[in-house]
């Protein structure tokens, strides 16, 4: 293992319908490559949700860890091994990189050809559909914060008897779309309303579909970041947000629901749907304003985007305590 003070603690919980909330395997190690490979071979659709923490002081304190941060650490470790070592180290780095790429391709294939765990006739199609390739790119970028490299794509396309050149292109396109959406979520003030709505629609769709698994929490956090800004600048909702700035107020919540709906319809969508959405917004705002004595609904707690996605029952705040059971 590398000579470093950084420790990685990963633990898993079953999300399978028949094993929900049952603890799975865990890992404590100071090797980011091994930790990343463990994540890729353990986190699977709805079967296992993985929670991660990292410590920079020999395990005295821990902070939450995102998969994309772990992937970046693994890539840096492999690059350092190849650059700083001799021929044997470079060969070892190449072998490890290829093994990680193969495991990443397997992880991604589970999303591309998803089968719901409780499906009585589990059937994986021989080849992913074009939409599945593009959505796979969305999922990859959402989890790992990169575009899949050529080594991953080579392992992935080799799984299918028919050439999948179009699929690889769609995968890269989907990853680029998600990276753009995540960049807007990090700095929503830099985007125009149309761009923010497009990103919101993409992230909104990521919360629907079982193949996203536990990663939907990352999409929800990015949505929230965009909504917090968009609701204050979009012409249809800015007056509502100014009058009722509390996120938990009924009128503010109605404005956010309108923006989610608009992001899925599209600004140039069916006029009847746009009219219905605007009418629903006006009706909800009026109803909320007619109940002045009603306390606002508590807003969601901030900061979920700073950790591995996990179901609420598996999450424990341990940023100042050693991780137990990992």
Indicate the proportion of strand residues: 5-15%
Largest sheet: 4 strands, antiparallel
> What proportion of the residues is helical, as a percent range?
40-55%
Helix/strand structural class: alpha+beta
Overall mean pLDDT:
85
What is the CA-atom radius of gyration, in angstroms? 22 Å
- Major beta sheet, strand line-up: 2-1-3-4
Spans of 5+ residues with little confidence (pLDDT < 50)? 302-306, 311-326
Number of strands: 4
Give the N-terminus to C-terminus distance in angstroms. 18 Å
> Could you say which overall geometry the principal axes of the C-alpha atoms support?
globular
The number of helical elements comes to: 11
Order of helices and strands: EEHEEHHHHHHHHHH
